[in-house]
Amino acid sequence: MRALRATLVVPGLFALTFEVFGNLQMALFAVFGGFASLVLATFGGTRRDKLIAHLGLALVGSVVLTIGTAVSGTAWLAAIVTIPVAFGIFFAGVAGPNAASGVTAALLVYVLPVASAGGLSTVPSRLAGWWLASVVSAAAVLLLSPRSPGDRLRAAAAASATALAVHLEAAVRGEATPAQLAASIAAKYELMTLFAAAPYRPTGLATADQGLANVVQLLEWCTALVSDALDGHLDLSHAAQADRDLLTVTVGVLRGAAALLAGQDGGPDIDRLERARAASTAHLRELSGDEASVRACAELAFHAQAIAVATRTIAADTLIATRRASPQIIAVQRRGWYGGREDDSPAEHRRGALASAVGVGVQHASLRSVWVRNSLRGAMGLAAAVAVADLSGVQHGFWVVLGALSVLRTSAAATGSTAARGLAGTALGFVVGAALLLAIGTGATALWVVLPIAVLVASYAPGTAPFAVGQAAFTVTVVVLFNLLVPAGWQVGLLRVQDVAIGCAVSLVVGIAFWPRGAATVVGDDLADAYRRGGAYLTQAVDWALGLRGKAPDTAIAAVTAGIRLDDALRGYLAEQGTKRVAKDDLWGLVMASMRLRLTAHSLASLRGQGASTYPDAPEHVDAVRVALRNLAAELTDFYERIAVQVGRPGHGEPAPTEVPVLSGFDAAADGSSDGAGPVHHHPHTLWVREHLRHLGQHAGVVTEPALHVAELRRIPWWR
After folding, report:
1. Model pTM?
2. What is the per-residue pLDDT for 614?
3. Which of 246, 188, 185 is nearest to 216 (CA)?
4. Would you kindly state where each structural domain of the chain is located, as residue ranges?
């Protein structure tokens, strides 16, 4: 469909603007604008989403086209202005998949005028060509698009929630089977594979998109909680009635969330879930008896509460993702996404897209962000290419910049490899184009016949053929196109080979100068940051749940931000070309471990609400239990700090495996009080905290070996 649209539109635009209007500038920008809108940008979503994306590209293109034309007459000014303009375009891709898809198209619309001769007097003709291409291209996309298969990510999320509900419901009845466990895990893997497949998150900047991204991660977490409970051979049918009721309500909420994600009517009953949680809490407060029986009941209650907390957040984010959430729910969730305050005014709660943009910008405002690094590298590469093109006096300077843009990658090795293939493809295209011209000549009729065929091949090749083939096809198109403009024979192709070679050399130098390791370094740094931030969040959440802290944790935002940066860094690393020295499953295991740490802290922070009033006149033994639990949390935090040091910036000497902590303080953390004659009573929050820490400690060992591999990788020189 992409090739068909381009074949119908691009030659037609060229014929209209060059043959009918007779305007060379309009023709040039109409043709390249058509390639930008139809080939380089592939927008997804509904027709409305595509229309908005094309409109946004048209507006951004108009601005950068004007800027590029205005500064093109002065070499030093053009190079300097290119840095912020290119950085802004590259970094805008963080807004979502459609924004990321439009980055290269917007850059093409900028580099064409900034590296071409022409003063401000050419701006109206250039804008006319660009807008003509934008309007016709948008119409072609809307008219010639296959029927949307639906939102695959939402469908996968609905399937995961449904499989999880089926498994949990059977477990509550004591009828869970291995097949149901396998089905819920398979649905989770399908969802996470779809979510992790792209080099950027398959969700955008809008509030609904942020909600959907959170639903995906929370479904993974909730599935892990249910699987861990049943893999541990817990019989949920033996839980107390209040806990079984809570799990039954949780099943209903999961089904309601799945229905909304699937586009059906209904929805989750969050209020009923909160009432069931309160009843479970009240029952746990009345637990009494010997330590063994209390521990068994507490473990079941812990799993019920942890699953309910995760499901409650899934339900809230599902309402947001399907645009059915109340302003109050959106306000609460946004505080977790962007760092709002508890006393935010109603006006602040309605910040909308501006809040999203500011929040995402703040989350990535760090050199540990792969978006910032890639944007800086790209901006410096294009600025250098603009300077070289102007100073070298080549005939078609924009081909130098375009060559630099086409081969610049996130690492020096990947850039070198792409440059070699790009040059080979351009040379091949020159040979084919020269042979074609020798065969058919430079007559207008023959070239007009060949032009649609060349456009068809050039627009079909990206993503379906090797990179070198795409470069060759585009070179042939350029040869035909420029011979229609100014008949010059095969020399046009030779000039393109020369200019692309210069651009490739510029990109290679920039790739070596700016973070030659690419995203691999960022992954290690962001892993370290995620573990440190998660550990700090866990410490505060434990103190908050135990009544040792007077206000809710304020480190949640930093932990969420670190997790988002890590997710993007890993996507960038996995998208890089070349052999990966650490297995993908190990890397995602490290990411999931950091998420487990953060969501454990989130679950703990949700256990209580009002400072130390949860422990009025606590007896002495309760204080001792809280101290013991705080020490257990400190042991886990120290372990993750050592993991952070290991995967962080490499030090001297060979890395050694990190020793998994042996958490031996659980007996000291056993909470029970009695007057000596009656039964022993237990505080629910100390029981929950203890079980959360036990659960986290049981999974600590899975990160040690992958972390060691990452540490070893970071000590290998980038050129090896």
Report:
1. 0.76
2. 47
3. 188
4. 1-148, 152-325, 367-516, 520-714
